[in-house]
Amino acid sequence: MYCKAFVAFGCIAIGLVEAANWPFDVTTLASPDGSIRAKFVSFGATLTELWVKDRKGRLRDVVLGYDDNSNLLTDPAHPVFNPVVGRYANRIKNGTFSIPITKLPQPDGPNVYHIPTNDHDGQVTLHGGIYGWDRRNWTIVSRSPTSVTFKHVDNADEGFPGVVTVFATHTVSNGGTLHTEVHATATQKTPIMLTQHIYWNLDAFQDGTTTILNHTLKIPASRVVTLDGNSVPNGKFTPVSGTPFDFNTAQQIGARWDQTLGLCSDVCQGYDHGWVYDRPFGQAVDSAGVTSKERPGASLWSDKSGIKVDISTNQPLSQIYTAFWLDTPRKAVHGGPSLNYSRWSAVAIEQEGYLDAINTPEWGVDQIYDPARPFAWSSTYHFSTIP
């Protein structure tokens, strides 16, 4: 057995049993009925391909990615193509927090933590820091023709307190279903909030389509999280009624596009916001480790391909990002590599907790976990076709 070093995730022992732990080895899952096929790599426990059937019964790869999966490591744009993102997804204001949580930054001390900033000119930590879980090599601990489980041990990386051990299991099943669940345990009090950062294009760039503006989106949510100029919550919520945020009634993503200029930043057009689901959600686990019940969340479909995905989750919020900053070569199956994925060519629908709740105590949201309180995340993506 020998060791090979990789940037960002250190040393990996490669032997007969551990050969599948190479970061870009592909694991292929397929449902027995042929309705869905998925591919994953250990780097970030990342989904690299997802093939589902359109209304004519033809398979299409509906997620973005690379032909060369090693680009997940080296891409300077860091688009976060379809990994498990943690230890804390989305944004942390000023890259700092304290335990117990507070509204205002506290003087440096034993319970005040600083995470490397990597967004908004050094004013924000995004998706767990410079080398979050999406930039780490996970270990395959089990797999079958329809399921794979990855493990990662976060040894107080990026300045977070304590060690977190996390397992992510991806499963495909008959009827066009992908299910992902994540369980994490911590050695001491620490924030945990994660997501699966999938970029969807249900047309798969076929038939001359290039954007998701004609995709239809439905979100059962009457509020979005109100953001400041750095896309960080200010502690308030905005009612969606009468605004371009209202997707309670299904709308094309681009239906009110002229009203979205400046919503996600001073220069951005489109969405990068958190919709709070109206139905109650929770992350509790019982003594047997069973997660809270999933409930219906967002739905997305394309009238052109006929593909629809319905998402259910145990998370309280859905972050919708319409990929304004995307500029990366496409997979060959999507017409690349001479063509790029560009702004609005995909939509990320991230099932997660309240963003930056660890700096927003007025919400009363507890995202601090410890040995007596494990973390559980689950989401199910059910694919079907519309006439």
TrEMBL record:
SUPFAM superfamilies: Galactose mutarotase-like
Gene3D superfamilies noted in UniProt: 2.70.98.10
Top-level taxon of origin: Eukaryota
Cited CDD domains: galactose_mutarotase_like
Signal peptide: 1-19
One Pfam match: Aldose_epim
Alphabetical keyword list: Carbohydrate metabolism, Isomerase, Signal
Protein family per UniProt: Belongs to the aldose epimerase family.
Protein name as catalogued: Aldose 1-epimerase
